[in-house]
Structures are given as structure tokens and as C-alpha cells.
Write a structure and sequence with these properties.
The complex is a heterodimer of chains A (267) and B (298). By secondary structure, chain A is mostly helical. Chain A contains 13 helices and no strands. In chain A, 73% of the residues lie in helices and 0% in strands. Chain B has 298 residues and is α/β, with parallel strands linked by helices. In chain B, strands 7-8-9-4-10-11 form a 6-stranded mixed β-sheet, sandwiched between helices. In chain B, strand 13 and strand 14 form a beta hairpin. The chains are: A mainly alpha (267), B alpha/beta (298). At the A-B interface, helix 1 and helix 5 of A face helix 2 and helix 3 of B.
């Protein structure tokens, strides 16, 4: 395990795009932490209101609401990390270096494992970043800072990490399948944003029945959009065991399919 | 007797309906410099791909050092397939560090040793993408030599190189062979195989056409002769005990002689009889003719 991560680190350390995109992502998330309160105030000053309620009047930054709000917003920056993962893994195909790794004595399974470990590491670091940003925002703006409220629902950060891991694993599968960085990333983005909207428009009933099994939906489903609750709509404010189970099943399927494809393919 | 370096048993590979390698059973012994000859598309690279773990065989088995091929055996051998594959944004040194990591090589001073061997030490901190094709190919060889392997596999190592590059690589291979390492070399260049190999096989459309030592194939014992007085020459030749046959074509006699004798012996014998040859050539039939002969078989 450690050996595989060390090899992965040797490959990525001199690869500038990896560090530029990582830096960009960190700047975005930290920026979100520092700037989001200002944005909410600004929206209120501009007269934005939701059914008569000003955004600044909503307890968006209060513990324990904060954790779901923050990790829900976190999903919008997944594409940055997905792009980073897709291009650095696709390099191994475009440079033919995966083939060389195998020739040099790495098994296909070890190669896949080194990439999975990379995804895990990236997801955990992104999760930690959100944890730090959440603690900063909460202690800065929350009207309540009792410890039991701070840690209540802090598990959203763990769910977020699992969600990101699943999204990146889906990206890994697409990259291994397609072996073209731009195409893989494009398909990932289309699946991430508009495809489900199109299906909803064409076949709303079909979508309602099967929606939770769609790859990206299953991934996003784990954390619901919390904001409608501030205009008194009913939203799920917890992580359901079934959505975690579906997500874990998806992750294992993506890894399994990736392994089967790599194993069967002649390089 | 020690195990063969490689032993294949009925090895097969089909790409769809096309059979790229058919029922290949060969043995390669330690210390051999083994050439794999064949026209493009004859199955050379496919065979080496299977032995290297990148191509899944459709049938049959192969053994390395008497054991099933595995990642462990691949770590102990040096393999270069087709073109050099490295991370273009990384320096020569860092690229070899990745290889060392994969092969579990602890002693990183080996990297400097092999870079010196292929004459890339001065360029070790330059990025791979700045290298010429010849330098890239030399880095491949450095990478293959990293673990000081007993066996080296090279697929078309001089492909696309300029004459200087070809000669550099060839000398490197000859040097490595002198260290007693087993080398398996696929090529469609016959004189390359003839210059460096001890054994060879010929593949054609995935079939094994010939396997055996190079020695004995490169020379057939014939000498071409002419002189001012052709009649006297003929008479003298007929009197020599080691001459087995004489044929005349274009005013030149082609003489078949004993295996132990050569053109010098013929010349000395003629000289002692007072005949001076105006034309004297030892005729060698090289691998190329042998190769074309074998390929012409149905």
C-alpha cells in the first residue's frame, strides 16, 4: 500500500498541472469559507429574498445546519478534482506508461490499487479541508457554539468524503474505459449536470422510479439540498443508511468493472 | 542442467479471427543471444508481449526460469518493447526512480551506474521530452539494465534510429552479451541478428519456420576464382584434394571446398603450382539468403 502510494507520488510530484489544479481547488474552498458570509449579506442588500425571507435572516451558518449546507455546496466544485484525476490517470494511457509499469513488474491490480489510493487520499484531504472551513465558519458566525451542536451532524463531512470518492471512482472507470482525457471528462460533466434534467423532461415517471440508481444521482443523493427548508419545505436533513449502502455498492462496482477491463485488455 | 530462461508450450494468440501466434513451443537457454526474425506482422511483438505480461495469451503456457510467469519474474528481467515509454515531463533520473520503485530496487546508486553505461549521465536532470529518439532508446536500455537482470528482451531496438544511433545500440547489446547475459532480440533486420545473435528463430504469419544456432548458417564453403590461363587453373583445381566441385559461370570458377579450408588455402596451393589468381573471393552465403529461402517455403 505505502509502496504503491510512494510510486504514485514519484509520478505526480513533478507533474505541474496536478499541483496547479490542487492549489486552485484549495483556493476555491478556502475562498468559499472566507467569502460566503459576505456573499449572503450582499445578496440580501441587493434585495434577494426567497418567499419574503432575506438570505441573511436564514441560519445558514449555525451549527448544526452548517455541516449539511457546507457539504452540499462542496459538490459544485467536484469537477475541479475530477479533472485533476482524469488527466493524471489518462496520462498513463497517452504516455503508454501503464503498459511500461506492467512490463517493469507491476500487476494490473496493483496499478489500479495505486490509483484508488490516490482517489482516497484526494477525497480525505478535500474532506479535511471542508471540516476546517466548517469549523472556521461556525465559530465565526454561528449563534450557537455548544460542543454537542458543533459535532451533531458533523458526520456530513464523512458522507461528503464518501460522495467525492464515489464521484472520482466513476471518473476513474470512465478514464480507464475511454482512454481519452477530454472525452472522459466531458461525459462525466454531462452526466453530472444536464443529462438527468433532459431525462426528467422526456420521461418524468421513468426517472422518478429509477432515479436513485443513476450513477451520478446515487452519488449526489446522499446529501440533499438543505436550503429549501429555510422557506419551510420538507427536506431530508440526515444521511440515510440506504443511500450510503447504494453509494458503497456503486463504488465497489466501479472498482470491479475497472479491474475487469484492465485485466482483459491487451496493452 | 539449469532451467531454460524461457519455455513456451503451445502458445497461441488470436486477435478476433486472426491468429497472430500459432502453437509456439520453444526454449531459450541461459547465455544465448536469441534473435526472433520475421517480416512485419509475423508475430514477433505479440510473442514478446505475451512473455512480458502485457498481452493475454489465447492459449498455451509459458515459463520463466521454470516457473509460471508473474510480476516477480518481470521484476528480475529487463524488457523493452517497441518504443520507449516514459513520463515526458520527468527527468531521466526521476523516470528511472519510478522504475526502481516498481522493481523494488533499494540501491538507487544503480541509477547513476546505468545512466553512465548508456552515456546519458550528463543529461540525467533533463526532461525526457527533450531527448532525441536515440537518447530515448538508450534510456530504455538503462531502465532495462537497472536491476542488473540476467535476461534482456529487446523488440526492434534500432527501429527509427539514425546510423549513429543504430551503431550505438548495437555496440551496447554486444557489450551486454559479453557479460554473459541472455538476450532475446526481435528484429526484421537480418544483419543485426547475424552480427549479435548466437541463436535465432524465424516466424512467418505466426508459425515457427526455423529455430537453431546462427553458426553454420552464415558461411557456405565456396570460393570464386579466375586466372589468365583458365585451363591451367581448372587443371590445378582438379588436382587439389579438398576441392569437391567446380562450376563455371561468366569466366569465373565457383569452387566448393572442405569446411576446414578457406580461400587462403586455395591461393597458397595455386601459388605453389605457379598459378596466380586474378580473382579470388571467399563466398559467404549469409542469413539473408537463408531467411528468404525459408520464407519462400509454403
Amino acid at each position: 500500500m505505502i509502496r504503491l502510494l510512494q510510486i504514485e507520488f514519484l509520478k505526480l510530484k513533478p507533474y505541474k498541472p496536478f499541483w496547479i489544479l490542487s492549489g486552485l481547488y484549495a483556493v476555491i474552498i478556502v475562498g468559499m469559507g472566507l467569502g460566503s458570509h459576505g456573499v449572503v449579506d450582499w445578496m440580501s442588500e441587493q434585495g434577494a429574498n426567497f418567499q419574503g425571507i432575506l438570505p441573511s435572516a436564514m441560519p445558514i451558518f449555525d451549527f448544526d445546519d452548517l455541516w449539511q449546507n457546507l457539504t452540499f455546496m462542496g459538490r459544485f466544485f467536484f469537477p475541479v478534482l475530477a479533472f485533476l484525476i482524469v488527466i493524471s490517470i489518462n496520462n498513463e494511457f497517452s504516455f503508454n506508461t501503464m503498459k511500461q509499469n506492467v512490463i517493469d513488474g507491476m500487476s494490473r491490480g496493483e496499478w489500479l490499487m495505486s490509483k484508488i489510493l490516490l482517489l482516497l487520499l484526494v477525497s480525505v484531504i478535500a474532506g479535511l479541508l471542508h471540516l476546517l472551513v466548517g469549523l472556521y465558519l461556525g465559530y465565526q458566525y454561528s449563534s450557537v457554539t455548544e460542543w454537542d451542536l458543533v459535532v451533531k451532524n458533523i458526520s456530513f463531512v464523512a458522507s461528503f468524503t464518501l460522495q467525492l470518492m464515489a464521484f472520482l471512482s466513476f471518473g476513474l472507470l470512465l478514464t480507464i474505459l475511454i482512454r481519452k482525457a477530454i472525452l472522459s471528462f466531458g461525459i462525466l460533466l454531462i452526466l453530472y449536470f444536464p443529462l438527468e434534467l433532459i431525462i426528467r423532461w422526456l420521461m418524468p415517471d421513468f426517472l422518478d422510479a429509477t432515479h436513485q440508481f443513476f450513477p451520478i444521482k446515487a452519488i449526489l443523493n446522499i446529501i440533499d439540498n438543505p436550503f429549501p427548508k429555510y422557506i419551510f419545505m420538507d427536506v431530508k436533513t440526515y444521511v440515510s443508511t440506504s443511500s450510503v449502502a447504494i453509494l458503497v455498492a456503486h463504488v465497489l462496482t466501479y472498482w470491479g468493472l475497472s479491474f475487469v477491463i484492465l485485466k482483459k485488455r491487451d496493452m | 542442467m539449469s532451467n531454460p530462461v524461457i519455455e513456451t508450450n503451445g502458445l497461441n494468440k488470436n486477435f478476433g479471427r486472426i491468429a497472430a501466434v500459432k502453437n509456439l513451443s520453444i526454449q531459450i537457454q541461459p547465455g544465448q543471444v536469441f534473435g526472433i526474425l520475421g517480416p512485419n506482422g509475423s508475430g514477433k511483438s505479440t510473442t514478446l508481449g505475451m512473455l512480458s505480461g502485457v498481452t493475454n495469451p489465447s492459449g498455451g503456457t509459458f515459463k520463466w526460469f521454470g516457473q509460471e510467469g508473474s510480476t516477480e519474474t518481470r521484476k528480475k528481467v529487463g524488457i523493452i518493447l517497441e518504443r520507449p515509454n516514459f513520463y515526458p515531463y520527468m527527468s531521466a533520473y526521476k523516470n528511472l526512480k519510478v522504475v526502481a520503485g516498481i522493481k523494488g530496487l533499494k540501491d538507487l546508486s544503480r541509477i547513476d551506474t546505468v545512466l553512465k553505461k548508456v552515456d546519458l549521465f550528463e543529461r540525467r536532470n533533463d526532461r525526457f521530452k527533450t531527448f532525441s529518439l536515440g537518447m530515448k532508446q538508450r534510456l530504455s536500455i538503462a531502465s532495462a539494465l537497472l536491476v542488473d537482470p540476467e535476461v534482456l528482451i529487446l523488440d526492434e531496438p534500432t527501429n527509427g534510429l539514425d546510423p549513429q544511433g543504430i551503431s550505438d545500440i548495437r555496440n551496447l547489446i554486444i557489450d551486454i552479451a559479453k557479460e554473459g547475459k541472455t538476450i532475446i532480440l526481435a528484429s526484421h533486420l537480418l544483419n543485426e541478428v547475424q552480427k549479435v545473435c548466437t541463436h535465432f528463430m524465424i516466424l512467418k504469419s505466426g508459425n515457427l519456420m526455423h529455430i537453431g544456432p546462427v553458426a553454420g548458417n552464415e558461411v557456405e564453403h565456396k570460393v570464386e576464382l579466375a586466372a589468365k590461363d583458365m585451363a591451367a587453373l581448372k587443371k590445378a583445381l582438379e588436382g587439389m584434394s579438398f576441392v569437391k566441385g567446380i562450376t563455371l559461370a561468366d569466366d569465373i570458377y565457383t569452387v566448393e571446398i572442405d569446411e576446414q579450408k578457406n580461400a587462403q588455402d586455395v591461393n597458397e596451393a595455386l601459388f605453389s603450382m605457379g598459378i596466380t589468381a586474378s580473382h579470388l573471393v571467399q563466398k559467404t552465403i549469409n542469413l539473408e539468403q537463408k531467411f528468404l529461402e525459408i520464407l519462400a517455403q509454403p
